Amino acid sequence: MTTVPLPYRVAAVSAETADCVSLEVAPVGQALPEFSPGRFAMVYAFGAGEVPISVSAIGDGHRLTHTVRAVGAVTGALCRLRAGDAVGLRGPYGVGWDLGAAAGSDVLVVAGGIGLAPLRPVVRHVLDHPGHYGRLNVLIGARTPQDLLYGEELERWRRASARVEVTVDRPGPGWRGSVGVVTTLLDRVDWRPDRTEALLCGPEVMIRHTAGALLDRGLPAQRVQVSLERNMRCGTGHCGHCQLGPLLLCRDGPVVGYDRTRPLLAVREL
Amino acid sequence: MIGTDGLAALVDVLRARGYTVVGPTVRDGAIVLAELESAAQLPYGWGVDLDAGQYRLRSRTDGAAFANAAGPQSWKTFLHPARVRQWTAERAGGELVIEADDTTPPRFAFLGVRSCDLRAIAVQDRVLTAGPHRDPVYGGRRSGAFLVAVECTEPGGTCFCVSMGTGPAAGPGYDLVLTELVDDEGHRFWIRGGSAEGAEILAELSGEPASEAVCRAATGAVAAAAERMGRTMPDTDLRRLMARTLEAPRWDDVASRCLTCGNCTMVCPTCFCTTTEDVTDLTGDHAERWRVWDVCFDLDFSYLPGGPVRASPRSRYRQWLTHKLGTWYDQFGSSGCVGCGRCVVWCPVAIDITEEAAALYDWTRRAEEEPR
User: Fold this and answer.
1) Distance between CA atoms of A209 and B172, rounded to whole angstroms?
2) How many contacts (CB atoms, under 8 Å) link A and B?
3) Where are the domains of chain A?
4) Is B248's pLDDT higher than 70?
5) What's domain A6-93's superfamily in CATH?
6) Which of A143, A154, B272, B296 is the most exposed place for a label (fewest CB within 10 A)?
7) Quick one: A240 exposed, middle or buried, by C-beta within 10 A (0-12, 13-18, 19+)?
8) DSSP string spanning A4-25?
9) Do A238 and B135 count as a contact with CB atoms less than 8 A apart?
10) How deeply is A172 buried, as exposed, middle or buried, from its count of CB atoms within 10 A (0-12, 13-18, 19+)?
11) Which pLDDT tens digit goes with each residue over A135-194?
12) Nearest-CB residue to B280 (from A47, A50, A87)
């Protein structure tokens, strides 16, 4: 039943940053149907509540990883879980990244903050399928060097042929990388608007500015996929919270083409 | 055709078949929907005077049972309950056991579903059961429900079903339909079946075939009702109107009056939004998930960690109206408004959905006429 969670157990916890953890969870009994990159689960912290979280890794044996940032009561409870603890999971919900649309093209991934989490399975998928996609560029913005997710994995992506560029808002001592918003990285990597599929996730203001910069450089809006966030209580299209104009983001998103979302995101408080 | 004794028999037959019969009855100065033990509880001889922000019972000399427009409740009270437990979770020895709440709902027979409300049920059917996921709570209650529709012969001062194409004649979806007639010939109901079970129950009632005169009188009364709508929507494509007025100054005007109380969403027969509440008992090992009606006028409705998406009352009223009249089409393939007028009646500051739509329409026409 799509409204009742299944019991999962935390198999491993990785502290990613000061306020982010990755929870690898495995089904206790029955497993949820197969997830794909960009889709999400409603993750239940016992007694505290449920939150919608995209998968940040899809493992073997129905294992899933969710990267969670502690921003409220439920995410706080999830971030305090230890290996062996129980959680509830339901899903998969929503529309994920359209990797078919990216086949044969260069892939440009642009992530802000925890927005890298739903994009990690995309990067892994592209690197696992050489020949299916062209060049892979990954542009990442973080608040500070300490807020950067998946540091070691980024090195593996570089070694595996991805171009990975990182910028931070506030550098700390010892930071020798870029400083500034993620759009400043766009002209640092080699990408062509006539053969690129762009996938964006991050704060909405970052998505708007990045998508705008991509369109300025000649990328068509329908070749820009964005993953958007709204309040969600059900995941099944029934609670009404995730509306963005005509869209129900749990059903029509969270990944939506920028050709559809551009006029919607232009209206304040829609 | 049946008389009032036939109507009483109908309630008895439905109850004998195991239905919980729900219908209109007078309580606390209003016509509410409640379980009926007999047809005697119907609001015989009661009408209503309706206006923006106003609802008054009025006695009728003709003794009619259904000559009263929509009251404060709609059938969603029963099909899509305001509070429902979805599941329980037990934590024992590190294990989590989650069980769906499988309480068997009553089998409802709704007596007196007006044409606008019949359409509203069809709208909620699409929202809650026709998408990729079926809501088990609504679905379970709806699939067992028996609908006795009533054609409208007495619209209220806030009614506009004709504008929305939802009445006053009953559309499809009923099991039985009644048209009430009170005249020199007596108090009668022209009753027809709309389903196999409806026909079966009809056969159990001792009525007589409706004469051509009765059919003509009933049809005429419904047609006359269409001419007596208290309100009308502007004659334009409302979906398109909503899409092109997102930045109209009228939203500031209505926001200056709107209390963001959400009464309109509570009384609306199609508003379906819900939120969730998670509770635990004192042991901390028993948790429950409850689903409760929610209101898009609340700040928390659009809560995100960075702050609410719709912080201003302007944006929240706009969300409600543009969803109801516009984006509902995109999401669920129809309008979300059935023209019942409840939101107009129960708004404490008398905001009128038809007046707001008309003001938006005027704004677009003025904008078109302005010299460039």
Assistant:
1) 49
2) 126
3) 6-93, 99-265
4) yes
5) Translation factors (2.40.30.10)
6) A143
7) buried
8) SPEEEEEEEEEE-SSSEEEEEE
9) yes
10) exposed
11) 999 999 999 999 999 999 999 999 999 999 999 999 988 899 999 999 999 999 999 999
12) A47
Q: CA-CA distance, A102 to A37, in Å (whole number)? A: 13
CA distances from B244 to B177, B239, B356, B365 (A): 40, 9, 14, 12
CATH class of A99-265: alpha beta
A11-47 as b/e: b if 16+ CB within 10 A? bebeebbeebbbbbbbbeeeebeebebbbbbbbbbbb
Per-residue pLDDT of B189-243, as tens digits, reads 999 999 999 999 999 998 899 999 999 999 999 999 999 999 999 999 999 999 9
**Calpha distance B269→B78 (Å, rounded):** 11
Find the largest Cα–Cα distance for chain B: 75
Cβ of residue A239 closer than 8 Å to a chain B Cβ: yes
Asked if residues B115 and B159 have their Cβ atoms less than 8 Å apart, the reply is: no
Question: Is the peptide bond prior to B168 cis by the omega test (within 30 degrees of 0)?
Answer: yes
**Is the Cα dihedral A56, A61, A62, A63 positive or negative?**
negative
Q: Summarize pLDDT for B256-269 with one digit per residue, the tens.
A: 999 999 999 999 99
With a cut of 50, which residues of chain A have pLDDT below it? none
Dihedral (CA of A123, A124, A128, A132) sign = negative
Alpha-carbon distance A127 to nearest alpha carbon in chain B (angstroms) = 32
Nearest to A167 by CA among A153, A155, A183, A178: A178
Tell me how far apart the terminal alpha carbons of chain B are, to the nearest angstrom. Answer: 63
Q: What's the predicted TM-score (pTM) here?
A: 0.95
pLDDT beyond 80 at B371: no
Nearest to A230 among B128, B246, B309 (CB): B309
B136 CB neighbours in chain A (<8 A) are 1, 3
Local confidence band at B372 (pLDDT 50, 70, 90 cut-offs): low
pLDDT of residue B367: 85
In this prediction, residue B99 carries a pLDDT of: 95
Yes or no, beta carbons of B100 and A267 under 8 Å apart: no
Query: In this complex, is the C-beta atom of A237 within 8 Å of any C-beta atom belonging to chain B?
Result: yes
Q: Which residues from chain B sit within 8 angstroms of residue A246, using beta carbons?
A: 327, 330-331
What is the DSSP-derived secondary structure letter of residue B283?
T
Query: Token digits for A120?
Result: 């990690």
Kindly report the number of other CB atoms within 10 A of residue A129's CB atom: 11
**What span, in angstroms and rounded, lies between the C-alpha atoms of A257 and A221?**
7
- The sign one gets for the Cα dihedral A164, A170, A173, A178 is positive
pLDDT tens, residue by residue, B144-186: 999 999 999 999 999 999 999 999 999 999 999 999 999 998 9
Label residue B93 by pLDDT band (50, 70, 90): confident
